[in-house]
Amino acid sequence: MILKIKKYGHPILRKxxxxxxEIDEEIIGFxxxxxxxxxxxxxxxxxxxxxGVARRIFVAKNEExxxxxxxxxxxxxxxxxxxxxxxxxxxxxxxxxxxATKIVVSAISLQGKExxxxxxxxxxxxxxxxxxxxxxxxxxDRADKKERKKMLSEWKGLRNLY
Length: 162
Prior knowledge:
Layout: H1 25-41, E1 45-47, E2 57-62, E3 65-78, E4 81-86, E5 94-99, E6 102-108, E7 114-120, H2 121-134, H3 139-142, H4 145-158
Antiparallel strand pairs: 1-2, 2-3, 3-6, 4-5, 6-7
């Protein structure tokens, strides 16, 4: 099922998501819906709260594979790069955001196993973006003052189009 994406201004986007204590059929089905949603949108990632669910789960695309992260934590990060980012909760808006270029992330798989992943470049950026969502942080919050002002001004013109 394609999920409806919450747009900037919805209060759930500012809420810290809750840990998932049990991976049950509901979580597995929701993860499947999240994967279907990002595939249909040609997106790189989607957090649960963007779909209206305040739980610590997100999906991210790595080349052609979809990865599911439950209760993710960034263990380490190195490097830094400013690059253009977008967000499904801000359709049509893009901004220059600084992120680490390499991260190590731990998470629980859908099978309930603790996993660690080393991610670089675009995947590292997507994971950081989605974990920020789970913490109630939006990509505009990561922009420097000048970029954020520009982004919010552009969003005022875009928000009624979507």
